[in-house]
């Protein structure tokens, strides 16, 4: 019995890894241009910092707008079709990026192609990231939701973390067009892998309306958005905070955050099964608050690094734990829409935290962003306490 159980568990893990790899390929493609794109638009094409920011943001706008539509597509036709469309979008983005580099002598045309490529990349992200999770749930069952979301999160942040320095090296060795060429290669690899995975059919039975889905997952989404503010300020302001104090070690703080995040995610499924999603989220948010406060008032780099690790460990369970609770409140026919709408809250939080915290930093110094994050996480904790009290409704 033990051997049989281990065999089943091993098969389940390999099946999950094969789907998680789709997410990883997608986020490597997303991470490749992050370190080089702003400089390319700013000084390479000569359009300045504002257009560099617009070019980066175009991807996230496309992702947010397409989330709900992608969810409906997954629910109706099954996730494999969405994954195929997503990697075609990645390939199209790579082709447009490649074309943009080849016509760099005509800056306006180059920028236009680049913007179209960023929009395609955003749609590809929405398609693959949503569909990969629903595909894995369809193959492995809803009981594995926490583990599936957790491992997809590791693939997401791991893909970006590995791709950003690789993209910088690639651009330095071969020029910006190499980013487009590698993106096309990743799209082909994703399509080939997706072709080998067993399909999950769409659900023909009619589910509830999108408005009803939104109302059911909104409390969990709002709690996620508030908790994600802490993640956003750490990513955006740790380096500036260390620089303002004339400290070394900002990269160590970011590494500590990431390693703590990944470490917690790896064992999260067992913790949720034992303690429940909402109780675990409550404890995790307390830990995140402590980490952010330690960062804000750190007297030394060592304390700041410890604070970053605490914040990473505290934030790690939030998306999977609350997502598991949110999915339990919608019928299977609406799983894709629910996941897409739930993810929008994270997208919006990460998109808005930086500018708001930046305004506070300009006026009150670099302690302010971490205090803002701690305050937002405290509000998330209050909301989750209310959800727990009222049975998650």
Automatic annotation (TrEMBL):
The keyword Transmembrane helix applies. The keyword Thylakoid does not apply. It is found in: Cell inner membrane; Cell membrane. Keywords: Cell inner membrane, Cell membrane, Membrane, Transmembrane, Transmembrane helix, Transport. It comes from the Bacteria. It is a multi-pass membrane protein. One of its GO terms (molecular function) is transmembrane transporter activity. Residues 182-393 form the Major facilitator superfamily (MFS) profile domain. The chain crosses the membrane at residues 12-37, 43-62, 83-105, 111-137, 149-170, 176-196, 217-243, 249-268, 280-297, 303-324, 336-360, 366-387. GO terms for cellular component: plasma membrane. Pfam families: MFS_1. Belongs to the major facilitator superfamily. YhhS family. This is Uncharacterized MFS-type transporter GGD50_003931.
């Amino acid at each position: 019995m033990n051997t049989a159980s281990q065999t089943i568990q091993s098969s389940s893990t390999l099946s999950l890894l094969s789907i998680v790899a789709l997410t990883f390929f997608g986020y490597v493609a997303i991470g490749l241009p992050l370190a080089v794109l702003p400089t390319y638009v700013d000084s390479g094409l000569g359009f300045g910092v504002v257009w560099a920011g617009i070019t980066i943001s175009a991807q996230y706008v496309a992702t947010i707008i397409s989330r709900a539509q992608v969810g409906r597509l997954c629910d109706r036709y099954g996730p494999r079709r969405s994954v195929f469309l997503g990697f075609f979008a990645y390939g199209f983005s790579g082709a447009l990026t490649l074309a943009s580099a080849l016509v760099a002598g005509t800056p306006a045309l180059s920028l236009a192609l680049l913007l179209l490529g960023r929009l395609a990349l955003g749609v590809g992200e929405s398609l693959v990231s949503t569909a990969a999770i629903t595909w894995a749930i369809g193959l492995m069952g809803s009981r594995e939701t926490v583990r599936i979301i957790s491992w997809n999160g590791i693939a997401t942040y791991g893909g970006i973390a590995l791709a950003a320095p690789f993209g910088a090296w690639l651009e330095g060795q071969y020029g910006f067009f190499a980013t487009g060429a590698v993106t096309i290669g990743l799209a082909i690899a994703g399509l080939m892998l997706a072709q080998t995975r067993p399909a999950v059919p769409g659900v023909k039975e009619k589910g509830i309306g999108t408005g009803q889905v939104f109302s059911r997952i909104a409390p969990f989404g709002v709690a996620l958005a508030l908790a994600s503010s802490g993640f956003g300020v750490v990513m955006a302001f740790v380096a500036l905070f260390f620089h303002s104090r004339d400290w070394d070690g900002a990269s160590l703080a970011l590494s500590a955050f990431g390693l703590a995040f990944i470490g917690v995610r790896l064992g999260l499924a067992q913790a949720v099964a034992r303690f429940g999603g909402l109780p675990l989220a409550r404890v995790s948010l307390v830990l995140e608050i402590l980490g952010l406060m330690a960062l804000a008032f750190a007297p030394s780099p060592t304390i700041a690094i410890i604070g970053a690790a605490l914040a990473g460990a505290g934030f790690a369970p939030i998306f999977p734990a609350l997502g598991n609770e949110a999915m339990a409140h919608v019928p299977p026919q609406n799983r894709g829409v629910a996941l897409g709408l739930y993810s929008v809250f994270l997208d919006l939080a990460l998109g808005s935290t930086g500018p708001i915290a930046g305004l506070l930093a300009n006026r009150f110094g670099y302690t302010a962003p971490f205090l803002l994050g701690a305050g937002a996480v405290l509000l998330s904790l209050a909301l989750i306490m209310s959800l727990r009290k009222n049975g998650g409704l």
